[in-house]
Structure formats: structure tokens, C-alpha cells
């Protein structure tokens, strides 16, 4: 096995490929060995999978950032490297295949791939693999939740992912609160309520942010009451109510549910029930 590793190291060293962009004098270096099919890499790496995974991540990191070059006039300047995103993504994927528990792989992927490279699917694949192989780590799900909200503009799904992250032992309580809020905004109120209840079932009053989670659950249940009332109103009148007042005036509900945050419930211009909107008009008395 030592001989195999030695041969592997020498082969990777001799297989370095250089691609030069003359206009920018930028040089990229990557090893063709690291780009072999993952099955081949697993066979070659043998018992050194963890070490080779580290080396591949270093190789991917070396392709990123800036470098100092010398101009034809003899001056030195810092320039941005020319990124080959398919190769960088392949390197990170191969590293994770060898060592799916290696944290730096998914952190490096998240820091680069979904942004400039627009490789959202590739990022999700890496984060999902990390989540499956690092059950103690809440960060992969947190990052997936962020990507779903920021890049895919899907607050409902993002909220469910944040709530899933919050169920990881040691996860900060804010994930449950944030997840419930986003799930409600995305029309997933019932899912948010169920997940908040499952979270509270494992907590006690002495736990940090316990009361904050109770308040959020109470508010979500209030939102659900109003959402059901909105459906009843639409069935009766053939349209959605334009305000909470219409629900009260027509006897669909007799009073507003409790809001622990002290704000008034309202229905926004898109027909969604809000519980923390500062611009909610007060209900008629």
C-alpha cells in the first residue's frame, strides 16, 4: 500500500497541467490525477483517502483568489486568477467522495460555487452529502437553508431546512425561530407548527430561548387561525379579504388570536397573513 501511495504521489506530481492566459499573464495549475473518476481515486488512494482528500481541497483552494504577477514592464501587481469552475467543482466533489466527513470541502464549496460560479445544484449536492455524513454538524443544513432562501427565493422550503438544522444537537435556538418564520412566509404554516412542537417536546423551561420558541409557536397558531378564516371568507364571498377587518366585520372570527410580540395581525397585499408587520392597520373596534 505504501508503494501504491508513492506511485500515486509521483504520478500526480508529474501530471501537473499548466494552462496560461497570455492576456492576463495568469497561470492555473491543477493535477489531472485529482480529476480521475471518483471510483478510480478511491481505489488508488486506498487507506490514504483522508490524506488525499485534504490534498485535493488544497489543490482546489490554490485555484481561487488572487496572485502576484510580473508585467512586461517589470512591475509586480496583484491580479485575479482565471477560474475554471467545472474543474474546481470536480476537485471538491472528488475530495468529498474520498472523505465525506471533511468539513473544509463543503465550507470551500459554499464560499465559492453558488456565488460567482452560479453552481447551485453542485453546492447542494456537496452540502447534502456533508449533512448525511456529519449528523452532529448543523452547519450544512443551515447553509442549504440560506442558499434556498437567497439564491432560489423559496422562503417556505428554506424555513423547513432551517427547522431541520435546528433539530441537530447543539444547534443554536435561533434556527428554529428563523425556520418557523420563513416557513410561515412561504405558506408552510402547518409544517412550521408541527416542527416547532417537535422541537419544544425535547426542551424544558430552563433551556436557552425556550420562551422565545413558545412565543413563536403561539404566534404561528394564531396565523393558522386567521388563514383558516381567510379560506372560509373566500368560500363565502368568492374573494380573499383585503384586511383583517373584513373577517371581524363579517363574523368569520370574533376576535384576534393572541400575539406575544404585541403587534397586530394583518393581511398583506399578496393575501398572506403577517404577525410582525409594523404597517398592519389596527382592526376596527
Describe this structure in words.
The chain is mainly alpha-helical and 285 residues long. The chain is 54% helix and 9% strand. The chain is built from 12 helices and 6 strands. It has helices at residues 2-14, 38-45, 49-62, 85-98, 103-112, 120-133, 139-150, 155-166, 174-185, 189-200, 210-237, 244-249; strands spanning 16-21, 26-31, 66-70, 76-80, 266-267, 273-274. The strands form 3 sheets. The chain has a two-stranded antiparallel ribbon with strand order 1-2. A two-stranded antiparallel ribbon has the order 3-4. A hairpin with a 5-residue loop joins strand 3 (66-70) and strand 4. Helix 3 (49-62) runs antiparallel to helix 4 and helix 8 packs parallel to helix 10 (189-200). The chain is elongated. Mean pLDDT is 79; it is low at 2-30.
Determine the N-to-C terminus distance: 81 Å
User: Judging from the principal axes of the Cα atoms, what is the shape?
Assistant: elongated
- Helix % is 40-55%
In angstroms, what is the radius of gyration? 26 Å
| Order of strands, widest sheet | 1-2
- Most strands sheet: 2 strands, antiparallel
| Helix-strand sequence | HEEHHEEHHHHHHHHHEE
Which stretches of 5+ consecutive residues score pLDDT under 50? 2-30
Q: Mean pLDDT, as a whole number? A: 79
**Count of discrete alpha- or pi-helical segments spanning 4 or more residues:** 12
Number of strands: 6
Structural class: mainly alpha
Strand content: 5-15%
